[in-house]
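Changelog-adjacent note: as of this version, every example in the card shows the full chain rather than a window. The one below runs 78 residues end to end.
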Amino acid sequence: MKRVRGSVPILDIYLSSFLSFRGIEPEFTRQGTRVIFEFPATPEVYDLTKTYNENPSVPVLDFVHHLRKLRSQMLSLR
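Full-length structure tokens:
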């Protein structure tokens, strides 16, 4: 996958939802039938990705809200 300068491409909707929940909104890029979530390449994004991989506790309803929002935006781009 080609890396766009200044952004981090992420295919995982759950990680993208976690980042969105923490206040970092993605830009969407379409490659064929796939939608790629692109986040700015900042230390905050890398720190939150590390936090996500450590399995933190998050409010479920808030997380599901962001998951549904990203999923609907992703499906509208297809």
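Structural remarks: The mean pLDDT is 92.
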